[in-house]
Amino acid sequence: MIRATTALVAAGALALSACGSSNDTTSSSASTQAASATNCDKANLSLYKPGQLTVATDKPAFPPYFEDNKPENGKGFESAVAYAIAKKLGFAPTEVKWVVEPFNSSYAPGPKKFDFDVNQISITKPRAKRVDFSAPYFTAPQAVVVPKGSSAAGVTSLADLASKKIGVQIGTTSLDAVNAKVHPSQSPQVFNDSNDTVQALKQKRVDAIVTDLPTAFYITAAQVPGSKIVGQFAAPGGDTWGALLKKGSKLTPCVSQAISQLKSSGELDRLEKQWMGAAAGAPELS
Length: 286
Fold this sequence. Notes:
Blueprint: H1 7-16, H2 29-34, E1 53-57, H3 77-88, E2 96-100, H4 103-106, E3 116-117, H5 125-128, E4 131-139, E5 142-146, H6 158-161, E6 166-169, H7 173-182, E7 189-191, H8 194-202, E8 208-212, H9 213-223, E9 228-233, E10 240-246, H10 252-265, H11 267-276
Parallel strand pairs: 1-2, 1-3, 6-7, 6-8
Antiparallel strand pairs: 4-10, 5-8, 5-9
Helix pairs in contact: 1-9, 3-10, 3-11
């Protein structure tokens, strides 16, 4: 995925970068386990610049991942996650320095001018051949998007959604998720590609569509005026994002260990709910 500098195209790339197949997901368990044999004390970390943690992301940086285009303010899901990782590694907020790294160059092979990059970067096998990925810090749930005036606009549960006409794109995990979790009373309407799915939403040929949450943010912000996300729900096979580091980075197992600790403590889940949940217009449906 190549990002452009305009807000609209860049926002689209944010969503599309998170639409990888679950078959491409690679495991970071080895680097997590390696941390147990690695001294992750701050004084022993291998850093791009001594005494500071250099974190990268693209510019402009969009909500709900970043707020006000200022990654350094700690607001937004990925900004908050980066500072949480930094804290686990022993860095104060003032010791975290942000740099700009265009999305499409982040996973190119070669030296990096940062310690790690957080930028909705999907963990895939091709990318993992050129860079390191930490343990995942986010697995994309499914989201329900409705057009303005839809009869599905008031759903508050998956049971409410079951009687609606639902659209999904063929070949995505969303179709399996709808059948497994929603149990619709009528077969979902299946579309060949994302354009057809969005057009069906625009023309109100369906009451709602189901897609991954990052794509849902893009659809409602840039593609279908008046549409909204009425909820999200967890489903197996979701796309995963990880912190990106240079290939063979000695810091990788320590970042993975920090993420694993944030996950086990419940802090990662709290940050996801705060920035990617109801506050971002995507309450959980059950």
